[in-house]
Amino acid sequence: MSTTTTYSVSGMTCGHCTSAVTEELSKLVGVQDVKIDLVAGGTSAVHVTSESALDEAAVRDAVDEAGYELAAS
User: Fold this and answer.
1) Beta partners for 44?
2) 3, 50 in Cβ contact below 8 A?
3) CB 5, CB 45: distance < 8 Å
4) How many CB atoms lie within 10 A of CB 53?
5) Based on the number of CB atoms within 10 Å of its own CB, is 63 exposed (0-12), middle (13-18) or buried (19 or more)?
6) First to last CA, the chain
7) Best CA proximity match to 8, nearest among 34, 32, 37
8) Rg of the chain over CA atoms, in angstroms?
9) Domains of the chain, with CATH numbers?
10) C-alpha distances in Å from residue 31, one per residue of 15, 18, 23, 39
11) Is residue 54 a contact partner of residue 28, using CB atoms and an 8 Å limit?
12) Confidence check: pLDDT of 1 > 90
């Protein structure tokens, strides 16, 4: 059974931003799908569907690698 977790990510402004975050998060083991509700210049909602709960540090690292910041939940 899969689980979907929503993370808040700040700094994204365009489709390229969402592509970069999606690409990095998709590299994490167990990730099945990534959907992003983009709020340009604000805090965007990133919905990650995975086989099991993801380690938040790994998610934070992936978002950082894409050049953005995981906002406090």
Assistant:
1) 9
2) yes
3) no
4) 9
5) buried
6) 24
7) 37
8) 11
9) 3-70 (3.30.70.100)
10) 20, 16, 11, 23
11) yes
12) no
Q: Find the mean pLDDT for residues 55-69.
A: 96
The residues that bridge with 35 in the sheet, in sequence order, are 47
Q: How far apart are CA 7 and CA 73, in angstroms?
A: 7
3-state DSSP assignment of residue 47:
strand
pLDDT tens for each residue of 2-36: 999 999 999 999 999 999 999 999 999 999 999 99
What residue has token string 């990095």?
A: 24
**Tokens found for residue 47:** 């919905």
CA–CA distance, 69 with 61 (Å, rounded to integer):
9
Strands, sheet with 43-50, edge to edge from the N-terminal-most edge strand: 31-37, 43-50, 3-10, 69-70
